[in-house]
Structure formats: C-alpha cells, structure tokens
Specification:
This protein is of the alpha/beta class. The chain has a domain of about 240 residues: FAD/NAD(P)-binding domain. It is built from twelve helices and 22 strands. α1 packs parallel to α6, α1 crosses α12 and α3 packs across α5. The chain is globular, with a radius of gyration of 23 Å. The protein starts with a strand and ends with a helix.
C-alpha cells in the first residue's frame, strides 16, 4: 500500500495528527511505534480494586477560552468521555512538624508572597519587551531573578523560607526542572490563560483507545508496533521521497511527521539524511526534557483527610493526590507526584522510592499510618522511548528556539509533540493538551504541503504536454 504520510510515534500527538489526516483529509497514513502498545507517555495502571491510575500524562484542561478554543476538551465530549474536575483550593497542607497550616493566615508570609508576585510581574513586563525586540537573547534563570541563590537558604520555618519553598515547588511542579536551570522564558508564555485540571474517569488510556478506534474506522490508518526507527532518508528525485528504516524493514511515503520526545532526539538514536538544519540541532541542544514520575500507594483503608490534595512540607513539598476522595471511596489510594531532580528515579531502587514517598505520611499521621498493600512507580526518565516528559527552556534557550523546534525542515520533514507546542507555564501538568494541539497543527500544515505539491505536479504536467 502507498502511504501519503508516515508518523513516527503513536503517542497522543501522533494519534491526534493521524486522526486529523485520516478522518478530516482522507490521507493514507502509516504509524510506526517502537513500543508494543499505543499511547506513548500515557500509561494507565489498575489498583487491586480495578481503579485506573494514570502513571504518565494524567490531566486535561476543561476550561473554555474563546480566544484559544479547547479542541481536546471538545474531543472528549464528542466521544462521551467523562471527566472529574479537581478543585486545587480543597487541599490541606502540613508543616515540617506535622501540623496542619494555612499559609494565608500568616501575615508575614502573605506579604512576602505579594512582594514575590509583584517582582514576577515586573520581570515579565521588562523582559517581555526585550524579547519582542531581541528574540535571540538568552535570559537568566528564575532563581536568579527571584534572588534565590543555590547555596544560601533562609532559616527554616521563617516566612522567607516558607515562601521560597512554596515558589520553588510551584515552578518545579509546573516545569519538571530545577529552578536554577529554568529560564525566565517560562513566565512569558500565554500566562493569561486560566486552566481547570481534570482527570478522565476511566483513565487516560480510555481517551487513547477512543481516539485510536475512531481513527481506525476511517480505514486510512495502518499501525505497526515494535518498530523503532533508526534512519530517515530524503531523496527528492524519488516519487515517494521519504524512506524510514526500522529494525525490521524500510517504509516509504510522501512526507514524515516525527513525534518522538525531545529526550530521544537529544540522544541521537535516529539518524537523519540529510542532517537536520543547524537551527533544529541548536534548538534540540538548548531545550531540555522535563522530568516527572508517579508513585502509587494503595492501602487497605484511608487514614488521611477527605480532600483532593495533601501537601506535606519537610524540606521539600510532597504532593499527594487523594483518589479515595475523587473515587468516592472506590480505592484507598494516594498518588505521589515527583518533579525535576526529585523525579530522577533511574539510580534508585523501588524500595528507596517507596520509603521516600511514605516517610512524610508516617511523620504526619503517626499511629494512624498503615503500610500499603500495593505500590507501583513510573520511570519515564529511564524509559528509552521517552527520556522524560515534555520540555522546558533553559538558560541557554532563546525565544527563537521555541520556533526552531517546531519549524519543518525545508524539504518537508515535520515535527510534533509536547516539546513543539510550548504555550504556558503549566505545560507539564497539561502536557496532553500540548500534544493534541501539536498533532492537529502539523496535520493542517501537511495538508497544505501535499495539496501544494499536487498543484505543482498538475502545472508541470500541463506545461510538458
């Protein structure tokens, strides 16, 4: 069979591109996936009570914005997929001695937060204007502009310490990176958008399966699993100018969409002939993959409060999503999220990771604490087909890198994925939104590209006949 497009990667960006190309434009698409499953950085685990827990991308945005339509939420509604909104204000925080606290009751902490907020707004205004004039300019780290030196920390439990701990945790949770390496660029992207985080009731795999089945019904999609790609060749003299080499055979098509994650591109396991442009190579070098991992702690019964989120401050802030509350008692499970340096699991044992997740719970709940009956962890940093989740702007990045990473090569090689659709600070928690947007965007670009080629061919035929 002749294919118009080959998509490398069957994650959500690849599936979104395939859905648009196959269902809306009726192109013939071949999708090559290195894993033995579709879904990429989504993976739904089941507890002993058969309740779904997402180990990778887990949140979708249910907010409506007329200026920037929420295509993903519209798709979930179209496919009758139910979501659960999470109110972040319904949470409880415990301090380092294990007592509940409300930081807004501390006048000095509130004053420090206001001062930090004003500083951030001032930085956004000042540097935002500079970037418009000089998009090639490199910006300092967020730690630098917030005056958070890496080797100097305030005295524990002072207002300065609490605010720095909270701001650092917020930035790390949103970018999946250490604040000392995160560029101020992360503050300058679409920051006026309001988000509403939600979980999919049946887990993210339900959305993946529904999108896959809907696309397969078009009869325009072919999927090949266990096909890691090693080479991509372009020969402009060939009627099908692209050749993709896998571990089994070579496939040909009119054009290519590469959706492999940034971390995989950085490792250089896929060879491009001709080589990628210097602009693309520079962008890949300057941006870095975000890190996020998930720890599932399933218990016989809950011993914690009935709120969606539990935060425990003990040198760093541990975040627990309470599935007992969200499932209305169907599973006594806490999900602990790790970001940035704390999410580097590849050199830690399963036992070490679980002990780290349990220690704050033991400290706070003392005699009420129970040992879990089942645990499960993700290791996206170690996964050879992921090497992280999404991407962030480093001090070596410029605003131009965000355009270079998504710009197709001059000969028609296209790129999609979370790393090509950086729009706002909360890219990591809402990574599936970016993945979907990038897939739809690149499908529209390819439709225009192929139609232009068809028109050029018709003109050439008329002139030669």
């Amino acid at each position: 069979m002749t294919h118009n497009v080959i998509i490398i990667g069957a994650g959500f960006s690849g599936l979104s591109a395939a859905h648009t190309l196959c269902c809306d434009f009726k192109y013939k698409v071949l999708m090559l996936e290195a894993r033995d499953r579709i879904g990429g950085c989504t993976d739904t685990f089941r507890t002993q009570t058969n309740y779904p827990v997402d180990m990778g991308m887990k949140f979708i945005d249910t907010a409506q914005n007329n200026a920037n339509p929420n295509l993903l939420f519209a798709l979930t509604k179209q496919m009758n997929i139910k979501t659960m909104n999470i109110d972040p204000n319904q949470s409880i925080t415990y301090n380092s001695v294990g007592d509940p606290e409300n930081l807004l009751d501390n006048i000095k902490v509130v004053e420090k937060i206001k001062a930090t907020t004003m500083l951030i707004e001032e930085v956004k205004t000042t540097l935002g204007e500079k970037i418009k004039e000089h998009p090639e300019q490199h910006l300092p780290s967020l730690a630098h502009v917030l005056h958070y030196p890496n080797n100097q920390f305030p005295k524990p439990e002072t207002p300065e310490f609490i605010v720095r701990e909270s701001i650092t945790a917020m930035i790390t949770h949103h970018t999946g990176a250490p604040i000392q390496d995160v560029s101020v660029l992360e503050l300058l992207k679409n920051n006026q958008v309001v988000h509403k985080n939600a979980l999919i009731e049946g887990g993210m795999q339900q959305l993946i399966d529904a999108l896959y089945q809907k696309t397969m019904q078009s009869q325009n999609l072919t999927v090949e699993l266990n096909m890691p790609v090693s080479e991509i060749h372009h020969d402009p003299e060939d009627a099908l100018p692209y050749a993709v080499t896998t571990n089994h055979k070579t496939f040909k098509a009119e054009t290519i969409i590469c959706t492999v994650p940034l971390g995989v591109l950085k490792e250089g396991n896929i060879q491009f002939y001709p080589p990628l442009s210097q602009d693309k190579q520079d962008a890949i070098q300057h941006l870095k993959p975000s890190l996020e991992n998930t720890v599932v702690l399933e218990f016989k019964k809950p011993f914690w409060p009935k709120v969606p989120y539990i935060y425990i401050r003990n040198g760093e802030i541990h975040e627990y999503l309470n599935l007992d509350f969200l499932s209305k008692g169907k599973t006594a499970t806490l999900v602990c999220h790790y970001y940035g340096e704390a999410a580097q699991f590849k050199n830690k044992t399963h036992k070490q990771i679980i002990e780290d997740a349990l220690l704050p719970l033991k400290h706070v709940f003392k005699d009420k604490f129970q040992d879990p009956i089942q645990t499960h962890i993700s290791r996206w940093d170690k996964d050879q087909y992921a090497r992280g989740m999404g991407c962030y702007c480093t001090k070596a990045s410029s605003a131009l890198d965000l355009e270079k990473i998504r710009t197709p090569e001059s000969y028609g090689l296209y790129f999609a994925g979370k790393h090509t659709e950086k729009q706002y600070l909360s890219t990591l928690p809402l990574g599936i939104y970016d993945a979907h947007q990038s897939g739809v965007r690149v499908a529209l670009e390819i439709d225009a590209y192929l139609k232009n080629n068809q028109e050029l061919s018709r003109i050439a035929r008329r002139r030669f006949h």
